[in-house]
From TrEMBL:
Pfam families: DAO. InterPro entries: DAO, FAD-dep_OxRdtase. D-dopa binds at R344, G390. This is FAD dependent oxidoreductase domain-containing protein. One of its GO terms (cellular component) is cytoplasm. Belongs to the DAMOX/DASOX family. Signal peptide: none annotated. FAD binds at T62, S63, T227. Its cofactor is FAD. GO terms for biological process: D-amino acid catabolic process. Keywords: FAD, Flavoprotein, Oxidoreductase.
Amino acid sequence: MEKNISFKPAPFINPIESSPNILVVGGGVTALVTSWLLLDRGYNVTILSKEWASYTSKIRLTSQIAGALWEFPPAVCGQHTDPISLHHSKRWCMMAYKIWDAIAADPELASASGVRMKYSAFFFPKPLEADEVQLDKMKEIQESGVRGFRRDPGLIQKYSISTEYGVEDAYELLAPVIDTDHAMSWLMKLVESKGAKFVTESINRDLFDCEYELRGRFKADAIVNATGLAGFDLANDNSCYPIRGGLIRVINDGKYFPKVESALSISADAHHAGHGSSDEIIFIIPRNDNTLLLGGISQSHKWNLDLTLDSPIIQRMRERCEIFLPPLKNALLDPEYPFAQGLRPFRQRNVRVERELRQHNNSSSSDANIHCTEPKTATSRIIHSYGHGGAGWSLSFGCASDVISLVMEALADLEPHAMAVSEEEII
């Protein structure tokens, strides 16, 4: 687990007069957790975002809409199969697992943050021995250090899964389940108490093009880009694309059906024939003591948030969950917030946690009147952390820890390197 981290309001290391100033761009979980770790390392942090967590049924951040069930990669919505992503994500997610687990183990922190450890069960349409990919993933999970792992087809009966759905194998483990509305509020208060400053502002162009301007205006020694899907513009990265998701929210108080206390999933890459296409999955998550999330869908390159409860794919989603777990036929919608939808911020390549690779032309006249806190160098001091897809909460602390290392490199003006599977692959 990250050593230099404190769950207390004060930073682990207090900043001094010479402490570097870091501008973090973004307002979601990636930006806030990265800011937390930077603050605990003694950096001064300013967080800039066009919007922050809100609590209406119409406008919520992607980080709030997320299912926020910790998962070992690849996540149930699929897509992150890039070898570089998988290599790093397995390390990132285990660091996050340990920290979320530590938060959940403290009753006061668990209550304040909305983080709990719950059993998370995964079901499969055939014995795992018949699916080499899923079998290998299960073995990795067993060896990863997660708690409570158990493989047992008897879990199908334990969780009252319908035989009509055609599942034959299952395993479960203890995993962090996060009430995102609660957690985002807690994270905002925590980083503020540690000294973060907040600026509400919209940036709509490549950060590289306005790096000197931003660094000069905010007296920033480095910039962290944690803007999710906005990396399309802010990192000039046209490989960014959304995978649209939707979740039905129902009351889970035990009155209308037996209360669901565990997460229940069938992933996209363990596709269940006869129950929708490969982008229609099973994802049932207890959000908090009173709300259950029913999902899910995984619609690639859909940019519009125009789904409703009456959309055919959402109706199929609910029907699929009801066939899978029949007591859900009696479920009542959450009257205040019955349906959530959002855009998972994916990338055609890997999750990007690396420094900006482009070099500045210091003779550019457009920057002539911009004064940074340091002399201009050809090497950029932008560090990127985006493209996490549906795994932002699962990868949060691991990615943030790597960002810290990259910030230190950038401040030393070392040559940047592209992400690679191993050090030997860095050219």
